[in-house]
């Protein structure tokens, strides 16, 4: 009888322990399944590729929502310095990322060089301009040249580098129209609002309304590197690290390469 009672007690204890374990597992599963929204600040030139990468990532992490804010790297960097709530920053230049690093706003363990790109000179697809080189923008037939604002748009700074390399910058100052980001410059060329523009090769690749007339030599400008990092103040640091790591995964690299970037 005593053995029977002991058996009953053991069974009850086992049932209680099993139930508690099940509840704990359920709680952990629920916790893991909690939805997370990540704010990503990314260079405007990444817009097309990031749309595809976003779709890929959401298939892997369906409980994560990505709110992607595109703009010039300098402006995005300034926003983060001013306290904007951002989880991951993907810049089109090391300069703007270094500014945040020096201000101790990055999780330095997540900082990595992600991509490379090229600078090209473009004209509207139906343009009759005969220029084939950056130095030829001094030609009188070229009235307006679109570039990004050099202080905030990396592509604009690269453009200045290239024109300086060819010793024509002083001669074309009055022709230059400055855009808020590289996508605006692309739009100006597409619509014929400027005669030529300087953008990344990846921007030209996704447009059927422009044609490339010249590619800048690598030694004519600073190296074009896109770094990425998690912002130290992120309230979702683990999820942010997961997305930041995904950007350098084979799947993401394949998308970037498809859009003309060089995976580093």
From TrEMBL:
Keywords: Metal-binding, Molybdenum, Signal. Pfam families: SBP_bac_11. Belongs to the bacterial solute-binding protein ModA family. SUPFAM superfamilies: Periplasmic binding protein-like II. It comes from Acetobacterium bakii. The lineage of its organism: Bacteria, Bacillati, Bacillota, Clostridia, Eubacteriales. PROSITE patterns: PROKAR_LIPOPROTEIN. It comes from the Bacteria. This is Molybdate ABC transporter substrate-binding protein. Residues 1-25 form the signal peptide. InterPro entries: ModA, ModA/WtpA, YvgL-like_PBP2. GO terms for biological process: molybdate ion transport. GO terms for molecular function: metal ion binding; molybdate ion binding; tungstate binding. Molybdate binds at residues 45, 73, 155, 182, 200.
